[in-house]
Write a structure and sequence with these properties.
single chain, alpha+beta, six-stranded antiparallel barrel, 6 strands
Length: 122
Amino acid sequence: MKRIIATLLLCLLFINNVSAHYTQTCKIKYRLSNGYWSKYYRVDVKFMTGSELNIQLGGPTFSIFDKFACIFWADNKITIIKLSTTIIGELDHDSINNRLTKLEGVDEENRFWEICPSGTCF
C-alpha cells in the first residue's frame, strides 16, 4: 500500500512538472471596435495551458482546462487570448500546424483574435 501511494505521489509530481507550452511565429489580427479587422501582425505566440499560465503569472487565475495564446509585446505588455478553437492533445507543432482552419479566441478585453500558425489564413 505504501508503494502505491509513493508511486502516485511521484506521478503527480511528474505530471505537474511537464511543460506543454509551445512557441511559434504566427500572423495575428484582432477585430476593431468598428467591426473591421486590424492589419496582420507577425509575432511570436506562446501557446500555454491554463495551469502553465497560472505558474508563469504566479496565481490561480486561469482555468487549468483551457488553452491560451500569449503574445509578449516589446513594451512589456502581454495579450492573453483564451482559445475557442479546440486543440486536442499537447500544445505542440503538430497540434498547432496540422489544422485546416485558423485559431480563434478572445482576450481579456473581449477583443476577438484570429491566429494563423501557417503563412495563410482561410
